[in-house]
């Protein structure tokens, strides 16, 4: 990796934004400081990011990020990636946590517009009409991550994975191990990640001529409680399924805790798979078979996309980028 604005800032004991203004000839500062910044950049062989250099300077050096739940490891890692990329080009970040509530998402969207941020990276709570009345100029500087917003016309930039395909592959891991009675725990089905993962689960079963029992489909809120409560209900069933697919690692953890409380061993008595991984997966017993999303790469791609759109003279990119994922095999599936 080449020299960044942060490298120059650290070398001179200045802020990244001061270095950025010095290189771009903007803002008030002494001639001596500006020359020192430029001399240091040349000495460190700094190559400016052409996209960032061409940004419309009347905008703020701030990007707003709206996410559903900052306590969820998926989103905290995503934020870390986005923040680092923005820091490297002299941009600041405003983080808005919607707590999975549409009304808060609406509020933060309007608040960030009022603050005239340069752009927004948004992971919507679910499909809504929040963005339907937005102008083309506003949407041009928005990138949606993980969940799609459901904007009429579908012209917006989106970055995620093929959730339907991934869920199908994950379900097939259970089917190939001999499981035909499989439960699933998902979140609000207005979220595209939830509805698509449920569709992938159903598609995998349908291809094996298996009709899932509706009482084995649990719709929750993508949090620990969803997995915990679902497993408690499953444990009380006379004929419970032999495997569970959890929408994310947080719900999977809820399943594991409830199973332990009920004296049900994983995977000996019930197998478990999920989306997303734990950072310290070696601390988990058993290690879960899961779909690993390219979280850091998604964050970097979102920043790259929004910067490119910000310098477009006409329409920004409305590309939908589906990034590669990885099926990580653990020891949470027992063959039947």
From TrEMBL:
InterPro entries per UniProt: HTH_LacI, LacI/GalR-like_sensor, Lambda_DNA-bd_dom_sf, Peripla_BP_I
GO molecular function: DNA binding
Source superkingdom: Bacteria
Keyword DNA-binding carried by entry: yes
SUPFAM superfamilies membership: lambda repressor-like DNA-binding domains (SSF47413), Periplasmic binding protein-like I (SSF53822)
Alphabetized CDD domains for the sequence: HTH_LacI, PBP1_LacI_sugar_binding-like
Domain HTH lacI-type span(s) in chain numbering: 3-57
Keywords tagged on the record: DNA-binding, Transcription, Transcription regulation
PANTHER family cross-referenced by the UniProt entry: HTH-TYPE TRANSCRIPTIONAL REGULATOR GALS, LACI-RELATED TRANSCRIPTIONAL REPRESSOR
Descriptive protein name: LacI family DNA-binding transcriptional regulator
